[in-house]
Amino acid sequence: MPDSILPNLALFLLAAMTILFAGTRLVHICDELADRTGWGEAIFGAFFLGGLTSLPGITASVTAAWSGAASLALSNAYGGIAAQTLFIAVADIVYREANLEHAAASLENMLASVGLLILLALLLFAHATPTLAIGHVHPISILLPFVYFAMLVLINRSRAYPMWFARVTQQTKSDRPLPDNQRMSKRQMLQRWLALIVIGMTVVAAGWLLTQSGMKISKITGVSESLIGALLIAIITSLPELVTTVVAVKQGALTLAVGGVLGGNAFDTLFAAVADCAYVEGSIYGFVKPLDEGFAALSAVMTGTLLLGLLLRQQRGPGGIGFESIAILTIYTVGFSILFLS
Predict the structure, then answer these.
(1) How distant, in Å, are the alpha carbons of 72, 73, 103, 228, 236 from that of 225?
(2) CATH number at residue 79
(3) What is the DSSP letter of 285?
(4) Which residues constitute the domain of residue 117?
(5) Following CA atoms 209, 210, 214, 216 in sequence, which dihedral angle do they give, to the nearest 10 degrees?
(6) Domain annotation covers residue 45
(7) Which residues contact 147 (CB under 8 A, 6 or more apart)?
(8) Residues 288-321: pLDDT tens digits?
(9) CA pair distance 315, 223, nearest whole angstrom
(10) Which of 97, 239, 262, 327 has the most beta carbons within 10 angstroms of its beta carbon?
(11) Average pLDDT over all residues of the chain
């Protein structure tokens, strides 16, 4: 291993440790604010926790697209979605009281899963019609942010006026706001919001540092662009989601944990839209490899499997985890192996 790789490895480890600390605090503050504001864990996880922890990834995709690395930009987005869905299976293993998807089942998380599948389908449509562009930007890239925010509005509305309820069981872990006598003052609320911003910026900075050191390491080792994007950079920039998901589960904020991953995944689809704007040679969807489309399809299959788990709500599977977590682990491992060997 060349000596020049050692400083980058040191930066990588420093950034990872920073994310470990900041991610832990981020979950605690988001859980508090979800209760204090009355917005709920699902919407708070989908928008704030998911969005903040996804910012390092969008930085990586935009940087890659601006540099002309189309496959790296999109494979980072799609690989990140797959990796973050895998983290739910990891969190299910960590949560020993019940099957995580059973305990965290909610209408909001199911709607978030459906919304994510729609966003992924739109991206696959863009890949199928790369010449359909306004200037150098595909219309789907313009449409994606509107669909994303419409999804958030629907999730918030479903919480206020639910038309469907998950059956409550002994293993259900509901999102219950704190009573009025435990609510914080306006000053305390402002302090939490400021802390959320500062910690979010710390996570972004650490994620950027991870991306830069990871790209240099991959350049030194000579790994292919798609492999770098879908595995190395995607997993590196998804570390905040892994940390926050496991911490949220350990703190008992199960809806926040699942909602944070689904919200982060939905936000990750916007990576493609922003990367398309940053890629000046034409619509970015026409300059990628079929392998990258495979990553998007694999992410959709994993999301659909997660949705099945939320709907069927198996109470206890082999080793205490649900069938969907076993399936997600298998799909990720087998799917990526097939894509890279084909």
Answers:
(1) 6, 9, 39, 5, 15
(2) 1.20.1420.30
(3) G
(4) 5-170+183-341
(5) 10
(6) yes
(7) 115, 118, 119, 122
(8) 888 889 999 999 999 999 999 888 877 766 566 7
(9) 42
(10) 262
(11) 78
